[in-house]
Amino acid sequence: MKIKAILFDIDGTLVDSNDMHVIAWEEAFAGIGATFDRQVIHDQIGKGTDMLVPTLLPDLDDDAVEALGDAHGDIFKAKFLERAQPFPEAHDLLARAHAAGQKVVLASSASAPELEHYLDLLDARDLVSETTSADDVANTKPAPDIFATALSKVTPLGPDEVLVVGDTPYDIEAAAKCGIAAVGLRSGKFPDAVLLKAGAIAIYDDVAALLADYDVSPLAR
After folding, report:
1. Cα separation of the two ends of the chain
2. Are 42 and 17 in contact (CB under 8 A)?
3. Among 113, 135, 165, 219, which residue's Cβ finds the most Cβ atoms within 10 Å?
4. What is the C-alpha to C-alpha distance for residues 152 and 94, in angstroms, rounded to an integer?
5. Fold of 18-79
6. What's the CA gap between 139 and 145, in Å, rounded?
7. Domain spans of the chain, in order of start
8. Residue 138: which residues within 8 A CB-CB, separation 6 or more?
9. Is the pTM of this model over 0.85?
10. How far apart are CA 75 and CA 20, in angstroms?
11. What are the DSSP E strand ranges found in 110-213?
12. DSSP state of 205
């Protein structure tokens, strides 16, 4: 069935920010005396606070988890948000989908204020039909909530008329829980084997590579 809507992740997919989030989390954890190798933190990027923190610090209570998430958000906003840049041709990929008559949806585990910033950074307000952020759902990726909410916003489209583009296994797993296929991008620095194990139906280096291959990619199905 023809793909009529594309749900795009943002961090690591459209915007080169994953490494910045790793450092922000590292600083947030250091604030409570917790230390992790950066690779360990990176391997959790793509999740929101509610999923990331309990994976690394399972004994923290809900208030402590929320406090850590707030600390990470404050650090990221203060040090990195204005420095984060779109990947080359990110805007052009969104414009290509929009020109094809496909609904363009941003569906991210980022906070609502970050998502609003990225809409302007990507010059995408005229291209994006709907958005979903961590602030809209009870649980972030790899729970299905973000993509399920996004899917509800493009009703009456069904899961087989929608495709997800993301850079982490958590994007792909969350999509699968909604019955949505997903394309993986290497720009988030996750190995192909990890993306394929999560269920990616295709893998591209980045948004520029996906755009170059658009007409024969799953997006044009």
Report:
1. 7
2. no
3. 165
4. 20
5. DNA polymerase; domain 1 (1.10.150)
6. 6
7. 5-16+84-220, 18-79
8. 145
9. yes
10. 10
11. 128-132, 162-166, 181-185, 202-204
12. S
